[in-house]
Design brief:
The protein is mostly beta strands. About 0% of the residues lie in helices and about 40% in strands. The protein is globular and about 35 Å long.
């Protein structure tokens, strides 16, 4: 994992996300971004599939993700995924 002006470059298959970070997924294999387990209200995390795979995963780490108790597969590698945590609701997509 390395920081650049384009975000945090993730060259491995897994990363534990920090609130406020933007992750550039560049591994040739799928990468799993695990969201913070106890985020503050309003925390944001973003990821972009620079590896152009449709199998990268956002792991919810115990909180709801888009109203569901399941992880999210990034199936469109051309759009960044931006998430915001809302206390009592979980992680939602920022459009």
């Amino acid at each position: 994992v390395s920081q650049s002006r384009y975000g945090v470059n993730v060259s491995g298959t897994a990363v534990l996300a920090d609130s406020g970070a933007f992750y550039r997924l560049s591994n040739v294999a799928s990468t799993t971004v695990t969201l913070p387990a106890a985020p503050a209200d309003g925390s944001c995390v973003a990821a972009f599939a620079a590896n152009r795979l449709t199998t990268n995963v956002i792991s919810r780490n115990g909180n709801n993700l888009c109203g569901l108790a399941e992880d999210m597969t990034i199936d469109n590698p051309y759009l960044p995924v931006q998430l915001k945590f809302r206390a009592g609701l979980g992680w939602d997509l920022i459009l």
